[in-house]
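Sample entry follows:

_____
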Amino acid sequence: MTKEMSKRQQRREKMRREQQRTRLITIGLVTLGAVFIAAIFILPNLRTALTPVGTIATAAPRDHPQANGTTMGDPKAPVKIDVFEDFQCPSCRAYSQEIEPQIVNAYVATGKAYYVFHNYPFIDTNTITKESHQAANAAMCANDQGKFWQYHDLLFANWNGENLGTFNDKFLVALAGEVDGLDKNAFAACFKEDRFKNDIQSDFDLGQQMGVNGTPSVFVNGQIVRPGYIPQFTDIQQAVDAILSGK
């Protein structure tokens, strides 16, 4: 009887140890999983917090005639120019710095065209940091204070590559301090809230409906200019002049 009880006790003790080991393994796996998931979300933010802002480039002075939010010019002008851009796009930078001023001087300032900017942040689609979206988020928060075009110009002046960490959150907030008359605290609150997320998505959805498949994409009275290629000033000029001449 004593031997039988001893064997049962041994079996119970063995089962108890196995159950305890199983629980410890389960707890360990759950803990490792939680640490891994936390690392995915925390490490990028930690890296951003520790990254120095560095030197901020200034933007060349630009005219923004009849600027109103993300638009320029007279809404009643005979020609409407819609432009879809991603702030991380190198071709958008070239377009905004070299071609856009020509359009503004020739058609917007003269009352012939109404110019509308649309956010189309697609370059960061498969990234964690979402620099394209956050740059758009920042530009729209500047727009909330009537400073969209000034911030727009600063973003392109400070571009230096795609998904390289340039447009990290810390930098984008610091950039707001370079815009005259912009309340940095109000900007930071707007930016953190991602207040204009739905507006940015609406722009993106509109671009897809209109047939945007890359940036910059330029439309003149709803018709895309030189699809599949970066439109040059002469391409846009031809489209606008055709409308103005009634052809």
Summary: Residues 1-50 form one domain.
